[in-house]
Design a protein that fits this description.
Elements: H1 2-6, H2 8-36, E1 41-49, E2 55-66, E3 70-72, H3 74-83, H4 87-107, E4 114-118, H5 121-125, H6 129-140, E5 147-152, H7 153-157, H8 164-173, E6 177-183, E7 200-203, H9 205-208, H10 215-231, E8 234-238, H11 243-252, E9 256-258, H12 268-277, H13 281-292
Parallel strand pairs: 2-4, 4-5, 5-6, 6-7, 7-8, 8-9
Antiparallel strand pairs: 1-2, 1-9, 2-3
Helix pairs in contact: 4-6
The structure holds ligand C2E and magnesium ion (MG) (3 copies).
One magnesium ion binds near residues 181 and 204.
Protein name: GGDEF-domain containing protein
């Protein structure tokens, strides 16, 4: 018993631990139910060019509204889902919903650049991931050129043995774009920052925040931007929250941004409105005619 093993501190700790384990077990069960009900939602956050104002892409981000606990952030439930082997199922719900929504925008003539989805290593390692992806695009009627996959550096490194590299080449050859997410936080060798493998780098938020006040971040973002430009890879800064950060990014010449200063991640209806408000007249007419028909 706790007492035998050494008194009050231990039993206090073990009660904390028990509560934590109970919470995780409950969360696990709730994730299982949410998968069965497909109750994960997708929010969308636009990425824009600072020079042209044009939309270059829009990122799909999973959201989970728990019945009793309210919104649970991906940072909280994804690690649990990964550990329990649920991430491939959750990923497929998100990817299907994101691609279906993008296909609807496309049919309505609403410009969104590309729909970007996050894909983890466990999702990619599923033997039929590429078949699932192509099947989903085809059923939805969306061209592969309108899709982008966001992958973190460690997944790119974990390549030849697991067959992920070959799978990614196959997917990219079909026209899907590949992006290195959270760039600068992992340990990708520069050999992977290669225009034959990667279409875009996403500079991690930690280098973008307070960029105006922080000399080191300014130097890092400038160096990454110049590296990417030299190689012919596009670049987007993540998590730009303020006007001052946008000004610094523009001064450095980092063209594309994503962050609260442009738009928060939005539910489907809001995202559609946001895109439509920025779409050319042609799209608006098309949508209007659709609603009149
Ligand atoms: P990420 O792919 O790097 O996504 C960017 C995160 O930054 C998102 O957090 C977004 O809401 C947040 N963000 C955007 N702009 C700002 C800003 O200006 N300031 C701040 N402070 N944050 C900003 P979110 O939605 O909580 O997602 C966290 C992470 O969870 C994602 O990081 C991604 O790694 C993972 N994730 C989210 N959805 C999915 C998914 O469908 N599948 C997979 N495999 N992973 C996902
Ligand atoms: Mg991402
Ligand atoms: Mg990121
Ligand atoms: Mg991340």
């Amino acid at each position: 018993s706790a007492k035998k093993l050494g008194g009050g501190n231990f039993s206090f700790f073990s009660e904390e631990l028990r509560r934590e384990l109970d919470y995780r077990k409950q969360l696990e069960q709730d994730i299982r139910t949410a998968i069965a009900n497909k109750s994960f939602e997708v929010y969308f956050q636009p990425q824009v060019s600072l020079t042209s104002g044009k939309i270059s892409g829009i990122e799909a981000l999973v959201r989970w509204k728990h019945e009793t606990r309210g919104m649970i952030s991906p940072g909280e439930f994804i690690p649990v889902a990964e550990k329990c082997g649920f991430m491939p199922d959750i990923g497929r719900i998100v990817i299907s919903k994101a691609i279906e929504e993008a296909a609807e925008w496309d049919r309505a003539g609403i410009d969104f650049g590309r729909i970007a989805v996050n894909v983890s290593g466990t999702e990619l390692r599923e033997p039929d991931f590429d078949a699932f992806l192509f099947g989903t695009l085809e059923r939805a009627g969306l061209a592969p050129q309108k899709l982008s996959l966001e992958i973190v550096e460690s997944v790119i490194l974990d390549d030849e043995k697991t067959g992920i590299a070959a799978k990614l080449r196959h997917i990219r050859a079909a026209g899907v774009h590949l992006e290195l997410d959270d760039f600068g936080t992992g340990y990708a060798s520069l050999s992977h920052v290669n225009p034959n493998e990667i279409d875009r780098l996403k500079i991690d938020r930690r280098f973008v925040q307070n960029i105006n006040e922080n000399g080191d971040n300014t130097k890092i973002v400038r160096a990454i931007t110049e590296l990417a430009r030299g190689l012919g890879i596009s670049i987007v800064a993540e998590g730009a929250e303020t006007e001052a950060e946008l000004d610094s990014l523009m001064a450095i010449g980092c063209d594309q941004v994503q962050g609260y200063s442009i738009a928060f991640p939005m539910p489907q209806d809001k995202a559609r409105e946001w895109l439509l408000a920025r779409s050319p007249k042609k799209a608006k007419l098309k949508v209007l005619r659709g609603s009149l028909a």
